[in-house]
Here is the input.
Amino acid sequence: MNKDKILILGKGFIGGRLREALGCLVSEAKITSYKDAEAEFLKFSPEIIINSIGHIGVNVDECEKDVDKTLFSNAFLPLILAELAAHYKVKLVHVSSGCIYHFDYSDKKQKRIAEN
Here is the structure.
């Protein structure tokens, strides 16, 4: 496989290690929508996308402090990328840190966040 046909999304710890090991392109774009992801795809035209975008913050406990960022980065963005990969018939590799946080739906503050 030509290393120019692999695109790594995410320039954090995992993305940096993958770039070092594979010598592939790394996108530095901030992806917040399908349109953003598609723009990066069209810019690089990869055959394989490796997603290493994720949120843990300073430590795993940060996931509980910023629920919206955690859900978007660790759950919704991989779904956006899966949709893009299926549409363009390219392979998607998703590398995740496995950070999970506890969400207590009985907590009134968290209920308000979830309802908005």
In short: The first helix runs from residue 13 to 22. The longest strand covers residues 6-9. The mean pLDDT is 84.
